[in-house]
Design brief:
Structural class: alpha/beta
Bound molecules: magnesium ion
Strand content: 15-25%
Shape: globular
CATH class of the largest domain: Alpha Beta
Number of helices: 11
CATH architecture of the largest domain: 3-Layer(aba) Sandwich
Order of helices and strands: HEHEHHEEHEEHEHEHEEHHEEEEH
Helix content: 25-40%
CATH superfamily of the largest domain: Alkaline Phosphatase, subunit A
Distance between the termini: 93 Å
Largest sheet: 10 strands, mixed
Radius of gyration: 24 Å
Low-confidence stretches: 26-34
């Protein structure tokens, strides 16, 4: 018996010693990973509505990967963008500032066009620049729309590399093709010849394809992102993956075309969802998932005049181009397994908050020599508090403050639909007032019942207006 137990002990000791380096290695790797700077992946859609994902209630679009992100991570139901159209919204995300502060919004030209000579000023500090200063590898993949001239491209704004269409996928339109909106209204499965939109793909600063083959664009953006992640697995990285879709014209790859119940718009979303799945799978395969924060959101609400080729804001009012909730509230997901406590977050957040939040998480310093409109969401994300530092949002359209939200209360000073649909422009002597908790669809104006609330919101709006210094407008340069 004694001999046997001694033998067993000897064997056990041998096994332990043999396994020790492996066990120690695992612990060391975990400790090292915890001390590492987290990676950031931002997946940004174009014109995706609040109601367009399965996890945000869409009945005929399947988004199993995003649904999984929502279950394993955090689903934010009060998350906003800094403007209701492409260019200013992107400027807000990357700089943490309202675009009215850096000349990136205009009443005359609401976004940049292929004949534009302006872009995001060099004096602006982007998320990429902030993270680069603490050793991050950075890549922009997809739609840029902050200036297509070399001095404005991602490579001039802190990104090591760029690959994508530098503006909207419906630009550089070629004459002689059927009118997209009219054709699309008749056919929920319609897609245009790619030659109709002579948009380039730019690699860093050089055009490498024209017209871009948009049938494969979503797949290729995902592949470029994955390639970047693999190449930079051993250092902290930030990837900004900005899909051109589901902005019209809509195109889906072969594996997704005709597969959804929602027509080509659904095919597009399902392809984006599948790409998200591939990105998450890559992070898991490389064992980077526990050290990577993935954020999914969109630049503005659905483009409603395109009927079934535009998305849906769900129960929110109006869409892209407006300062109603449907224009500026986005379906947003945060995923970081093991670090973020899963659940639904009803507190307010905005894309402008990503810059200060990422800076904190990366140990970088957020710019302090200028006004930032973003808040550091880290304590809320990490579950150290239930309260968001953001209790307000200022809804600018063109160059005017249209509305303000503080807590659940939202006052509209000006209301206007967009692109010829929705309400006519109206300036309100007494603002319209909605309680977004009780009435997320902005249906019941209760201004007459809450005069004190109005007074408070008017004062907050006025104080905010005073904080804006007018600068050179970048969108009108041509
Ligand atoms: Mg857009």
């Amino acid at each position: 018996m004694k001999v046997e137990s001694r033998t067993v002990r000897a064997i056990a000791t041998t096994i332990l010693w043999a396994a020790l380096p492996m066990l120690l290695g695992q612990v060391t790797a975990q400790v090292a990973r915890a001390a590492e700077k987290p990676n950031f992946v931002v997946i940004f859609c174009d014109d995706l509505g609040y109601g367009d994902l399965g996890c945000f209630g869409h009945p005929t679009i399947r988004t199993p990967n995003l649904d999984r992100m929502a279950v394993e991570g955090q689903k934010w139901t009060n998350f906003y963008v800094g403007a209701c159209v492409c260019t200013p919204s992107r400027a807000a995300l990357l700089t943490g500032r309202l675009p009215i502060r850096n000349g990136m919004m205009s009443a005359k030209r609401r976004v940049l066009f292929p004949d534009s000579k302006g872009g995001l000023p060099a004096s602006e500090i982007t998320i990429a620049e902030s993270l680069k200063s603490v050793g991050y590898a950075t890549a922009a993949v997809g739609k840029w729309h902050l200036g297509h001239l070399p001095e404005y491209l991602p490579t001039a704004h802190g990104f090591d590399s760029y690959w994508g269409i530098p503006y909207s996928n419906d630009m550089d339109a070629v004459r002689g093709f059927p009118n997209y909106a009219q054709t699309a209204r008749k056919d929920a499965n319609y897609f245009a010849p790619i030659e109709q939109y002579n948009v380039p793909i730019i690699e860093d600063t050089k055009v490498v394809e024209r017209p871009a083959n948009q049938h494969t664009i979503t797949r290729r953006y995902t592949e470029k992102t994955i390639e970047f992640i693999r190449d930079h697995r051993d250092e902290p990285f930030f990837v900004y993956l900005a899909h051109n879709l589901p902005h019209i014209p809509l195109y889906a790859g072969k594996e997704h075309l005709g597969k959804s119940r929602r027509g080509i718009f659904g095919d597009v979303i399902e392809e984006i969802d599948s790409g998200v799945g591939k990105v998450l799978a890559t992070l898991q395969e490389l064992e980077l998932d526990k050290n990577t924060l993935v954020v999914f959101t969109s630049d503005n609400g659905p483009w409603l005049p395109f009927h079934t080729h535009g998305g849906s804001a769900g129960l929110l009012r109006e869409g892209k181009g407006t300062t109603f909730e449907g224009g500026m509230r986005e379906p947003t997901l945060f995923w970081w397994p093991g670090t973020l406590k899963p659940g639904v977050r009803m507190e307010m957040g905005a894309t402008m908050d990503l810059l200060p939040t990422f800076c904190t998480l990366a140990g970088a310093t957020a710019p302090s020599d200028r006004t930032l409109d973003g808040y550091d969401l880290t304590p809320l994300l990490l579950g150290k508090t239930d309260k968001s530092p953001r209790d307000r949002l200022f809804y600018w359209r063109e160059e005017q403050l249209y509305a303000v939200r503080v807590g659940p209360w939202k006052a509209h000073f000006i209301t206007q639909g967009c692109y010829g649909i929705g309400p006519q422009r109206q300036e309100h002597e007494t603002p319209e007032l909605y309680h977004l908790g009780h009435d997320p669809s902005e249906k019941y104006d209760i201004a007459a019942l809450h005069t004190e609330q109005i007074k408070e919101l008017v004062a907050i709006a006025e104080e905010h207006r005073q904080s804006i210094e007018r600068v050179e407008n970048q969108l009108i340069k041509r």
